[in-house]
């Protein structure tokens, strides 16, 4: 799409998860893995893809109104895993437990965005998974056929780890030879009570 911005909405992580992930990565010994830069760690809520640049300010205003209606919640950390499965992984995730508040936020956000796109006559092609699994992508494995038969992820002690989700960020993503670069276009607070 000409004159467009590649956009997504995400929940930022806190210092606790930043340290937890760094500790996890230092204990792994997996060949040919390029880890995603810490400044790009986040929980994706919705990937919008290419969005017309001339409507970004309208999108931001619309999202401000939407998030005023959404209650904050917390995500409970589950485990570090290969996805989709260890025998043929394409990613490494820091995965949270399924969360009904997160799932509802994703679904209501899609409905809200679809209405906005319709009003702006922008083609809408987003779809959600049956279950929206909150996670932080830590690595995209370049060769999905590469086998890791004996390379189990070394677990670390996580105790009880909660990520408080009280605001969401609209990011612009620019793909560069050095990886994706994110620009914060707006922050939206979720309702506190």
Protein described:
The mean pLDDT is about 90. The protein has three helices and eight strands, in the order E-H-E-H-E-E-H-E-E-E-E. Strand 3 and strand 4 form a beta hairpin. The chain is an alpha+beta fold and about 190 residues long. The radius of gyration is 17 Å and the shape is globular. The protein has a single domain, classed as Cyclic phosphodiesterase (Cyclic Phosphodiesterase, Chain: A, Alpha-Beta Complex), CATH 3.90.1140.
Features:
193 residues, alpha+beta, Cyclic Phosphodiesterase, Chain: A, 4-stranded antiparallel sheet
Number of helical stretches of at least 4 residues = 3
The succession of helices and strands, N to C, reads: EHEHEEHEEEE
**For the record, what is the CATH homologous superfamily label?**
Cyclic phosphodiesterase
- What is the gyration radius calculated from CA atoms? 17 Å
Give the domain tally: 1
The beta-strand count equals: 8
Helix-residue proportion = 10-25%
Fraction in beta strands:
35-45%
SSE blueprint and pairings:
Layout: E1 4-12, H1 15-26, E2 42-52, H2 56-67, E3 73-83, E4 91-96, H3 100-120, E5 135-140, E6 162-165, E7 167-176, E8 179-189
Antiparallel strand pairs: 1-2, 1-7, 3-4, 3-6, 4-5, 7-8
Could you write a compact summary of the structure shown?
With 193 residues, the chain is α+β, with helices and mostly antiparallel strands. 23% of the residues lie in helices and 35% in strands.
């Amino acid at each position: 799409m000409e004159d467009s911005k590649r956009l997504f909405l995400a929940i930022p992580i806190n210092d606790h998860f930043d340290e937890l992930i760094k500790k996890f990565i230092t204990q792994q010994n997996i060949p040919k893995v390029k880890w995603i830069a810490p400044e790009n760690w986040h929980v994706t809520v919705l990937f919008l893809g290419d969005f017309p640049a001339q409507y970004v300010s309208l999108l931001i205003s619309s999202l401000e109104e939407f998030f005023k209606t959404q209650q904050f919640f917390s995500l409970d950390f589950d485990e570090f895993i290969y996805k989709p499965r260890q025998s043929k992984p394409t990613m490494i995730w820091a995965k949270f437990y399924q969360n009904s508040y997160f799932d509802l936020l994703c679904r209501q956000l899609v409905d809200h965005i679809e209405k906005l796109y319709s009003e702006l006559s922008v083609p809408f092609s987003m779809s959600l998974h049956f279950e929206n699994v909150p996670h932080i992508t830590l690595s995209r494995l370049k060769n999905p056929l590469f086998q890791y038969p004996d390379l189990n992820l070394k677990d670390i002690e996580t105790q009880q780890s909660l990520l408080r989700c009280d605001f969401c960020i609209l990011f612009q993503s620019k793909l560069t030879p050095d990886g994706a670069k994110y620009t914060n276009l707006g922050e939206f607070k979720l309702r506190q009570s």
